[in-house]
Backbone:
């Protein structure tokens, strides 16, 4: 009976599309129903699976691509979406840990079609990866969530080859505001829902560790700092402010550039040349360099740290770092 019902859903959808019962015209564009919003956090909650609660923040927008930061108790994803020729697709997914640097120009590692124009009842498309079929199965349904009631909506039903299906509601000006999915394991059918509970305006607030040499040079200490990240954040300026506020020796030093190489697992940071004007012996200098390695390495989740001064190799007389010389993160 379950199989028959699933086949009936698919057959009905295809019949409506083939017969032209698709509505009188498009109700808008993908940009209306999935805007690339700046400095806005969407808070989603899953009543059945609280561990799946998550927040969505746009870290970068570049041309027709947007980079999203997905965070939760056990969730740390980076997604890149692309809107091109009337199709919104996910082109990249990184699920190991947060990615704060701009990766909007990265080569795709996934092809998942989220929405496809025209946005009319009955329009359907292949999702690409996963071999599922998505269909616009409703327009203008009223969706009630803790974040508000939405009436300018489209309903998209995605049917997977194994019989699982997901129903997603997109609302004008917000994107996804509600979805529900049904999965089957043997004879067991389970369902869950996720809904928008809050929309927060402003930057994304996170806590980061900042390391610095302790007084007396006996050890390296750490202070947890609250920072706010905005869409298309200028991270060199942000870290200049954080370091000047926290690390006394760096009160006049600026961060010029930050480059992350995830393939080789390192972050390279370029500082102003007056870094060498700091009154320090080799002991303080060594601890300061290791402190910086831990601060940047742990923020970007890489194993090695490289330093330059205004684009040139670091050479203080005590320490020298060429192009292939690194400091291990957390090696103090």
Residues:
């Amino acid at each position: 009976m379950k199989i028959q019902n699933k086949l009936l859903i698919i057959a009905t959808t295809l019949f409506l599309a083939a017969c032209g019962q698709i509505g009188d015209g498009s109700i808008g564009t993908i940009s209306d129903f999935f805007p690339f919003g700046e400095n806005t956090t969407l808070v989603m909650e899953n009543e059945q699976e609280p561990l799946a609660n998550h927040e969505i923040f746009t870290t970068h927008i570049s041309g027709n691509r947007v980079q999203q930061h997905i965070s939760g108790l056990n969730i740390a994803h980076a997604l890149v979406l692309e809107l091109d020729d009337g199709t919104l697709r996910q082109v990249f997914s990184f699920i190991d840990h947060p990615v704060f640097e701009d990766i909007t120009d990265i080569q795709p590692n996934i092809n998942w079609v989220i929405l496809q124009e025209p946005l009319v009842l009955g329009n359907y498309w292949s999702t690409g990866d996963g071999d599922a079929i998505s269909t616009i199965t409703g327009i203008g349904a009223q969706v009630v969530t803790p974040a508000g009631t939405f009436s300018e909506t489209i309903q998209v039903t995605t049917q997977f080859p194994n019989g699982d299906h997901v129903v997603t509601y997109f609302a004008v000006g917000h994107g996804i505001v509600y979805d529900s999915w049904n999965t089957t394991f043997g004879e067991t059918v389970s369902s869950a829902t996720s809904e928008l509970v809050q929309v927060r305006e402003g930057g994304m607030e996170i806590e980061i560790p900042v390391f610095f040499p302790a007084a007396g040079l006996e050890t390296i200490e750490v202070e947890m700092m609250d920072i706010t990240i905005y869409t298309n954040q200028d991270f060199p300026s942000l870290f200049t402010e954080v370091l000047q506020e926290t690390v006394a020796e760096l009160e006049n030093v600026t961060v010029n550039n930050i480059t992350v190489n995830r393939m080789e697992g390192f972050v390279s940071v370029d500082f102003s040349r007056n870094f060498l004007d700091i009154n320090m012996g080799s002991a303080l200098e060594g601890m300061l360099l290791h402190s910086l390695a831990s601060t940047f390495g742990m923020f970007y989740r890489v194993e090695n740290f490289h330093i330059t001064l205004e684009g040139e190799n670091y050479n203080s007389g005590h320490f020298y770092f060429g192009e292939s010389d690194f400091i291990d993160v957390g090696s103090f």
Summary: Confidence is low (pLDDT under 50) at residues 1-24. Residues 244 and 250 are 5 Å apart (CA to CA).
